């Protein structure tokens, strides 16, 4: 009987250790997912606000649909000054846009290794309520596909995926001057996750709240646009606990308080093609789950391209790669199209 009792105690202890290890891996992955997804969402909207509210470079070509040359053809040689645009102003009061992004990120820390992919799609509409104030609303969905690598001492080699994920995000921009711009966004994301350890599956819900605010300063030099941005993001997550294969998995609530700084340079070619490069620095001021090796910061290098196709159409492409965070790396790409009227 003594040996039987000892065996029961051992099994219970092992189960508790396994559940604890699972929770640690889950917490690290959940923290990374929240940080990566929130950075992607905030970057997507910041990019829209920058394109809309930022001052336009000298020589920018704008198509006038009200001007016809002597041969009866539409005149496409008008630039921003010809259209009467001041810095930071837009040709139209309303705009609609759509954007898709893809992010690949991974963690190589023992106990929480994974490879993950996320897809996000956002569509939005905005209105320039005054010459200085832009108000907008975006909505969209996301997809997560995360493959675990030997969690719980090798017992869990399953997946963590979204059954569904929806986001609503109001945003605004305010021009203090033609060259100093405030941007802010608030987002609510509701997700339904499906956690599989290779044999059993459990599901849980998540509600995530994001606040993102920043101030940008622009410097215009002929075709060059130089800018800097100081920003802050706060994310809180309410995650439900659940049962998987008879094991209770604790999902404590999460939060992230993060500062970010950006330096960016863009150059206008041929009056409508604008490549740019940027470097971003992120620093975690506070986080619910301690990062691997207590590494609280990372850099991101960015390359992008804006195409000002006409006075109503803008197309954008952007790619980024992170570096500097211990045992973590991330790569992303995004594309957008905007129509104004």
Automatic annotation (TrEMBL):
Residues 1-21 form the signal peptide. It comes from the Bacteria. Pfam families: Autotransporter. The keyword Signal applies. Residues 89-341 form the Autotransporter domain. SUPFAM superfamilies: Autotransporter. This is Autotransporter beta-domain-containing protein. The keyword Electron transport does not apply. SMART domains: Autotransporter (SM00869). PROSITE patterns: AUTOTRANSPORTER. Keywords: Signal. It comes from Desulfovibrio gilichinskyi.
């Amino acid at each position: 009987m003594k040996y039987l009792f000892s065996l029961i105690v051992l099994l219970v202890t092992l189960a508790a250790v396994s559940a604890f290890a699972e929770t640690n891996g889950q917490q690290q992955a959940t923290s990374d997912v929240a940080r990566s997804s929130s950075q992607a969402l905030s970057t997507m909207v910041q990019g829209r606000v920058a394109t809309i509210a930022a001052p336009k470079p000298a020589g920018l070509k704008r198509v006038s649909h009200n001007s016809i040359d002597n041969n009866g053809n539409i005149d496409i040689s008008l630039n921003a000054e010809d259209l009467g645009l001041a810095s930071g102003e837009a040709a139209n009061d309303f705009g609609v846009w759509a954007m898709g992004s893809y992010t690949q990120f991974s963690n190589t820390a023992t106990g929480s290794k994974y490879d993950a992919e996320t897809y996000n799609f956002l569509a939005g509409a905005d209105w320039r309520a005054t010459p200085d104030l832009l108000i907008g609303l975006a909505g969209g969905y996301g997809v997560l596909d995360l493959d675990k690598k030997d969690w719980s001492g090798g017992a869990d080699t399953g997946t963590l995926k979204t059954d569904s994920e929806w986001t609503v995000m109001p945003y605004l921009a305010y021009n203090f001057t033609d060259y100093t711009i405030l941007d802010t966004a608030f987002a609510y994301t509701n997700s339904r996750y499906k956690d599989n350890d290779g044999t059993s599956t459990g599901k849980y819900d998540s509600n995530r709240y994001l606040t993102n605010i920043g101030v940008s300063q622009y410097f215009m030099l002929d075709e060059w646009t130089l800018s800097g941005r100081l920003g802050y993001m706060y994310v809180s997550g309410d995650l439900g606990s659940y049962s998987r294969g008879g094991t209770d998995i604790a999902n404590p609530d999460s939060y992230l308080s993060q500062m970010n700084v950006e330096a960016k340079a863009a150059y206008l070619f041929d009056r409508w093609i604008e490549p740019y490069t940027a470097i971003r620095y992120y620093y975690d001021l506070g986080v619910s789950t301690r990062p691997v090796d207590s590494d609280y910061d990372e850099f991101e290098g960015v390359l992008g391209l804006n195409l000002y196709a006409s006075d109503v159409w803008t197309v954008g492409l952007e790619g980024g790669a992170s570096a500097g965070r211990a045992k973590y790396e991330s790569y992303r790409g995004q594309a957008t199209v905007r129509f104004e009227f």
